[in-house]
């Protein structure tokens, strides 16, 4: 196993080739906020919350996707990055409709958590209040597009872990949204196995169990990492 | 000299004011340290006075009366506090913004959802006209402090007011102070 040595916020770090900057930073106790990243799913760098500065490069790089390299000098928490992160969170809040008080995920929402971490007590960007639909066609679960932050965790878990590939991303720009099947009502997509993995990994209240009401969704996305590790080691029970 | 203290209720459910009343016995301490010069829950004065030091404003700006009052509050207040999620994000009242305009909102509420006998409210000078969109305070006037929460808990309100009364800026960080919802 070859090793790369680099510096993260002044800590000297030695990591195996292929390790991401995010994993390396966490290894040495440097927190980097993330939203689209989830252990057990392929990285896509969709949310841009984990951007870091690398000396000598004018471009910010997503820590969740960038591998360590020899001699890298990385900064994860500069004033510029702090400002960008708060702006990213403000964009996520203002582009959809996040009415936390009446949300199924209130109090257990990763977007709320990140908002606290970046110090957002109000948004400097104006609220758009777009008209977005809610899909309640599935017998067990619902999808409220008002709360979707397009992290694509649902798309990836359904494709990569459940193998059903119910979800995709449709359209672009402000019309971009998660679609089921060929843009069908979720309940009409036969491929869905009703496993609920998408609901479990969704960081917000966008995907939810219909039995849950305000503040009752307590998802545990980290369970996915355990499932994927168990599979990799052949620890299935049957 | 005592601080001149006010609270104002715009487009909100009054829950933020109810939470303020949940300060219970600390309200007595507060009353000893400030003069309440305007408040729907602690004063009978009908016109917003001049020279107010601190004002907590609940609710977004949804109609012509709200707009008139917030402009007055801003002009006559040293520290304007956006009090609760409705004031900060438009929150629940802002959910009507997706219908795009006052007219569709009134049609929806008074005609489409009425059981046959509905009519649009029309009482000029009595019922204030709805604005096209509900706006958070800071999209209309400069705001000095933000106190999130729906409602902000009594503990959060107290932790905000205590430093403010001493003339220090409140430390707005961490889930206990700034989590929405
Ligand atoms: S998804 Fe999270 S941020 Fe959005 S409304 Fe629900 S609790 Fe609030
Ligand atoms: S539904 Fe949830 S998991 Fe899927 S993209 Fe939206 S926020 Fe992410
Ligand atoms: S923030 Fe919540 S409690 Fe306060 S007025 Fe709005 S809906 Fe009511
Ligand atoms: S966590 Fe890296 S871009 Fe979303």
What is shown here, in short?
The complex is a heterodimer of chains A (238) and B (181). Chain A is an alpha+beta fold.
Textual characterization of the structure:
The complex is a heterodimer of chains A (238) and B (181). Chain A has 238 residues and is an alpha+beta fold. Chain A has two domains: 75 residues, Roll (Ubiquitin-like (UB roll)); 150 residues, Alpha-Beta Plaits, CATH 3.30.70.20. Helices cover 24% and strands 16% of the residues of chain A. Chain A has six helices and ten strands, in the order ββαβββααββαββαβα. In chain A, the strands form three sheets. Chain A has a five-stranded mixed beta sheet, covered by helices on one side. Chain A has a three-stranded antiparallel beta sheet with strand order 6-7-10. In chain A, a hairpin with a 5-residue loop joins strand 6 and strand 7. The mean pLDDT of chain A is 96. Chain B is α/β, with parallel strands linked by helices and 181 residues long. Chain B contains seven helices and seven strands. In chain B, the strands form two sheets. A five-stranded parallel beta sheet of chain B has the order 2-1-3-5-7, sandwiched between helices. The longest helix of chain B has 13 residues. Chain B is globular, with a radius of gyration of 17 Å. The model of chain B has no long low-confidence stretch (mean pLDDT 96). The chains are: A alpha+beta (238), B alpha/beta (181). The interface between A and B is medium-sized, with 27 and 29 residues. The structure holds iron/sulfur cluster (3 copies) and FE2/S2 (inorganic) cluster.
């Amino acid at each position: 196993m070859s090793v790369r040595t680099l510096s993260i916020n002044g800590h000297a770090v030695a990591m195996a080739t292929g390790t991401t900057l995010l994993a390396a930073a966490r290894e040495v106790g440097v927190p980097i906020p993330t939203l689209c990243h989830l252990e057990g799913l392929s990285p896509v760098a969709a949310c841009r919350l984990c951007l870091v500065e690398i000396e000598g490069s004018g471009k910010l790089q997503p820590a969740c996707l960038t591998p360590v390299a020899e001699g890298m000098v990385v900064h994860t928490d500069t004033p510029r990055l702090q400002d960008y992160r708060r702006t990213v969170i403000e964009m996520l809040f203002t582009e959809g409709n996040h009415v936390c008080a009446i949300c199924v995920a209130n109090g257990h929402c990763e977007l709320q958590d990140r908002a606290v971490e970046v110090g957002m007590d109000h948004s400097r960007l104006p609220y758009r209040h777009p008209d977005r639909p809610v899909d309640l066609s599935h017998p067990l679960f619902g999808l409220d597009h008002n709360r979707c932050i397009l992290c694509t965790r649902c798309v990836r878990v359904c494709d990569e872990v459940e193998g059903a590939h119910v979800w995709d991303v449709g359209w672009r720009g402000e019309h971009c949204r998660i679609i089921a099947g060929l843009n069908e009502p979720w309940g009409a997509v036969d491929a869905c196995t009703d496993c609920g993995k998408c609901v479990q990994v969704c960081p917000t209240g966008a995907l939810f169990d219909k039995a849950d009401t305000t503040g009752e969704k307590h998802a545990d996305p980290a369970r996915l990492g355990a499932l994927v590790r168990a599979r990799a080691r052949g620890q299935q029970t049957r | 000299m005592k601080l001149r203290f006010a609270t104002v209720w715009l487009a909100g459910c009054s829950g933020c004011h109810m939470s303020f009343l949940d300060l219970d016995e600390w309200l007595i301490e507060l009353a000893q340290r400030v003069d309440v010069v305007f408040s729907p829950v602690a004063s009978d004065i009908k016109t917003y006075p001049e020279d107010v030091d601190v004002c907590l404003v609940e609710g977004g700006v949804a109609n012509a009366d709200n707009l008139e009052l917030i402009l007055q509050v801003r002009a006559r207040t040293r520290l304007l506090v956006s009090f609760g999620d409705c004031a900060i994000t438009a929150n629940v009242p802002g959910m009507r913004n997706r219908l795009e305009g006052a007219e569709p909102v009134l049609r929806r509420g008074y005609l489409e959802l009425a059981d046959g006998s509905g009519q649009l409210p029309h009482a000029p000078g009595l019922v204030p006209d709805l604005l096209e969109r509900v706006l958070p305070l800071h999209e209309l006037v400069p705001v000095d402090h933000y106190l999130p929460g729906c409602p902000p808990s009594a503990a959060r309100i107290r932790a905000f007011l205590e430093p403010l009364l001493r003339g220090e800026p409140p430390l707005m960080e961490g889930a206990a102070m700034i989590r929405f919802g």
